[in-house]
Description:
It comes from Nonomuraea thailandensis. Its EC number is 1.3.8.6. One of its GO terms (biological process) is fatty acid beta-oxidation. GO terms for molecular function: flavin adenine dinucleotide binding; glutaryl-CoA dehydrogenase activity. The chain is α+β, with helices and mostly antiparallel strands. Helix content is 52%, strand content 14%. It has helices at 18-45, 52-58, 76-89, 91-111, 114-125, 144-147, 239-274, 286-314, 320-345, 356-368, 373-385; strands at 131-134, 151-155, 158-168, 176-183, 189-195, 201-205, 218-228, 276-277, 280-281. Strands 1, 2, 3, 4, 5, 6 and 7 form a 7-stranded mixed sheet that branches. A hairpin with a 2-residue loop joins strand 8 (276-277) and strand 9 (280-281). Helix 7 runs parallel beside helix 9 (320-345). The longest helix is centred in the middle third of the chain and has 36 residues, at 239-274. The termini are far apart.
Amino acid sequence: MSELLTGDLYAFESLLAGEERATLLRVREFLAEKVVPIANECWVRAEFPVDLVKEYAELGIAGLAYPECPGPKPSGLLSGFLALEMARADPSMATFFGVHTGLAMGSIAACGSAEQRERWLPGMSRMEQIGAFALTEPTGGSDVSGGMRTTARREGNAWVLDGAKRWIGNGTFADLIVVWARDVEDEHVKGFVVEKGTPGFTATKIENKMALRTVQNADITLSGCRVPEENRLRNAGSFRDTARILRRTRSGVAWQAVGIMLAAYEIALRYAREREQFGRPIAKFQLVQDLLVRMLGNATACLGMVVRLAQLQDEDVFRDEHSALAKAYCTSRMREVVGWARELLAGNGIILDYDIARFVADAEAIYSYEGTREINTLIVGRAVTGMSAFV
Length: 391
């Protein structure tokens, strides 16, 4: 199994010990053997490797964070490093896993009743049922909290959902879709678990993407979609509850950004050692070393940030501004790093065969989802000034 990450200059990974360290190495080995070799092919074809889901399930990591699921509960540090490791191998597969375990399972864990948690989470932890999270709408992204158009209307012992959602990861094949809708009676946002095959629910794959092509994003239409009252998440009564989910998943995106930075740095470092110009490896040129050190500096600074973020989570003093700052800062530095790596590879940097082109493209999606830089900046700005600048 691999030793410490090539780009982990300060050995943050060594903070993991015992079984957690062994779990990370086991996942790293799996990704290197099963995911990395097919990542470019899946990306080009925009197809999800469904056959790998069973093997992901055998890793036993999908439900580690939830009490309803078997196994020892992981530290925030292990959860973070797992997100990093998946993004380092393939940002698309990291996104698939994050949507399932973080957004979908996280919504049920945080907002579901005890009965609902027992009903859904164990099967989802075994990946027998795959989850999706439907919040963003065709006309509502950053303003979806106040501008949500998808509605929920109570009819007897059921709810009727009408509206549309967009950019829903796993949406084309998910078994359980957490849909957020505005109750027409009290105007509050509520959460519902819509099961695959429910009449009135349709999902259409979004085509022609330039990033995260392996992820099966969907346009979802809800037309008179009837959901039983037992599928309404009992503890989701307003958008504040939705925001609680995003607080934790944004920290996961920051970890993903670090994984992408480390992958880009490792690709560039390997290339610089092997590529020769003017009779010697380009790694011997000062300007090339400057690019490599800039990449390493960004990755190291951001890795230190997310490690501390994980500690705050474990100490239960984790706030919105903590994850918002990490998401905004780390994804911004990520864009710089993948750009520098592509620059170092010159023309070869735009060919998928050299890997970096996929990371450059995928970084654009990571930069935007789970809250744009501007929105996360406003969350932090409100916290530090005590004044809201939201419109």
